[in-house]
Specification:
The structure is a homodimer. Chain A has 10 helices and no strands. By secondary structure, chain A is an all-alpha fold. The first copy, chain A, folds into 2 domains: about 70 residues, no CATH class; about 140 residues, Orthogonal Bundle (Tetracycline Repressor, domain 2), CATH 1.10.357.10. Chains A and B meet through helix 8 and helix 10 of A and helix 8 and helix 10 of B. Chain B binds a DNA duplex through helix 3.
Chain lengths: ~220, ~220
DNA sequence: GCCATTTGTTACCACCCGGTAAGTACTTTA
DNA sequence: TAAAGTACTTACCGGGTGGTAACAAATGGC
């Protein structure tokens, strides 16, 4: 009974699928064919787990076992846990850009361009893909902080540009653009804290209601 | 046999005040007079630290050293780390009720009662007092989850009551009250993720702008 | 068939964290 | 003044985490 070496680490019930891998497909350790685990597969799982459990509370062992590999294997693909997070953030940003590219059109009024932004954003939140939201700078290295902050700045800039465009073309009206942007991001980002029940609302319904609320407010029209 | 005993664990630099106690006054360990540390003082520091660093990333040692006491001393006042959090949540809720009691008046239109709610709420967020927001159920015991969820439910109910009152008296108008409440809480709760710079905006300015945005929206009035 | 590269594995470490046991000093009370 | 409680301290444990060293098996090119 040596307690330094934990023998139980190796033995993992091969029949128990566990709830670890509820999010994405995963089998038991060793069941996966060699070579099917690439960076993108890892980031898919990692994004989901970071989003569901939080970055801190997701251990590398959690991620690895959801992929049916072992923790050190992750270090073949990534250089650190933070590296995984940063790549997830980058991936999320790229997916956002791709999603928005189809529907976006700079000739539309700013108001509509804000709507496009929000619909894509809410979609991706509910797909557990926007790791940026979940990334808390306080756990990151200085270099990581800079990178993460840059992505946040870019996406913030994107929304603010649309808001300004709306102000110019007369489709939107507001005082303080910073507070407005913060408010909008708060509304949608906080979805990551919703309990599972509330998340069952279809993304389209959520973004519809939010967009309505943001544009029209909830004050009764004064007569 | 066992190499698990790490001797270096005990040695800790006693002079290093560190930046742990930037939030509230603290000196080096032992500088504080006996008896000045009571539950309320602990909760004050703990709330701030939970809010600034997050619950997970605030160790009991962090809290203790900010109070110039040792970690086991905390166990004289509280039974566990979660206990501290739960008491902070309760304290925050009570402070909220007290703050709101002065200005609240059920005879006011719902719209104004929502405003009162939000002004108090934003104030207390900026005072780092609403630990409820920072408490992530995923780290809590089942019993803790229930308690925490109850406080959240109560404060949610409070806002929804005000919203419904506004809908009845005609001062507010909206479709889905749940989404509206989620949206509002998202806007204000997300303030806990703002970087320090943005938090310098005076609370009154924040709540004014948020309230304006919530009531009137940012869509230009259609002619 | 052999070798280099890719993709993993086992075994392990140093560190940190929540929590506990047991003892100590100050303060109140009878 | 002595007992009883209050408010701490030192020393320690078990368990978990990110990360590393060293080794092994599958894969593809020659």
């Amino acid at each position: 009974m040596t307690d330094a070496v934990n023998p139980k680490r190796a033995e993992r019930n091969p029949t128990a699928g566990g709830s670890a891998a509820r999010t994405a497909g995963a089998g038991q350790r060793r069941s996966r064919k060699r070579g099917t685990v690439n960076k993108d597969v890892i980031m898919g799982i990692a994004s989901s787990m970071f989003r569901e459990r939080g970055y801190d509370r997701t251990s590398l062992e959690d991620i690895a076992s959801a992929l049916s590999i072992t923790k050190p294997s992750l270090y073949y693909h990534f250089s650190s846990k933070e590296d995984i997070l940063l790549e997830c953030i980058s991936r999320g940003y790229i997916l956002f850009q791709q999603k928005i590219a189809d529907r976006d059109d700079v000739r539309l009024p700013g108001r509509e361009r804000v709507r496009v932004f929000l619909e894509a954003y809410v979609d991706l939140i509910q797909d557990n893909v926007l790791s940026m939201i979940v990334a808390d700078e306080r756990v990151m290295s200085d270099a990581g902080k800079v990178k993460s902050r840059n992505y946040k700045r870019m996406i913030n800039r994107d929304l603010q540009d649309r808001l300004e465009a709306g102000q110019r073309d007369g489709s939107l009206a507001f005082d303080d653009i910073k507070i407005v942007a913060y408010g909008i991001f708060g509304m949608v980002n906080w979805m990551t804290h919703w309990q599972s029940g509330a998340l069952d609302i279809p993304p389209a319904a959520v973004s519809d209601q939010f967009v309505k609320m943001i544009f029209d407010g909830i004050g009764a029209p004064r007569a």
